[in-house]
Amino acid sequence: MALAALTLHTACLLAEVLRGALQAIPPGQMMAARALGMRPATAYASVIWPQARRIAAPAALGVFVGAVKDTSLVSIIGVFDVLGAAKAVVAGTEWRPYHVEVYLAVALLYFAASLALSKVARRMEARAA
């Protein structure tokens, strides 16, 4: 149930990002494509969607960073994630003395994933501008 809720929440956020990107496209773009003789489906596929994807990419990556972070919140209700795996490892007697290192490794994993996604988002944002 938690996975379904997280999936629906992320899908709703992505839908809002795409809606905003589509609204950011000036209506003249569709009019120009129609004036060139394109059908609406062709105009959307070759004119509107490529522009909307470029506008939406940084925000969509931000949504994905949030989704990665939200997976640790789901661990509260018992769904297996990286933090849950770390807790399971620390529960073992041979890893108990290394609990600080295990949690630091998990923190570094989350930090690296978030940093990589945010750098990609910044690059896409700079390229779009």
UniProtKB/TrEMBL annotation:
One GO biological process term: transmembrane transport
Protein name: ABC transmembrane type-1 domain-containing protein
Bilayer topology annotation: Multi-pass membrane protein
Chief location category: membrane
SUPFAM superfamilies, A to Z: MetI-like
Subcellular location: Membrane
Organism: Rhizopus delemar
Gene Ontology cellular component list: membrane
Keyword check for Membrane: yes
Pfam family, one: BPD_transp_1
Residues annotated as transmembrane: 102-121
UniProt keywords, alphabetically: Amino-acid transport, Membrane, Signal, Transmembrane, Transmembrane helix, Transport
InterPro entries: ArtM/GltK/GlnP/TcyL/YhdX-like (IPR043429), MetI-like (IPR000515), MetI-like_sf (IPR035906)
Domain of life: Eukaryota
Annotated ABC transmembrane type-1 domain residues: 1-121
PANTHER family, per database record: L-CYSTINE TRANSPORT SYSTEM PERMEASE PROTEIN TCYL (PTHR30614:SF0), MEMBRANE COMPONENT OF AMINO ACID ABC TRANSPORTER (PTHR30614)
Leader sequence segment: 1-23
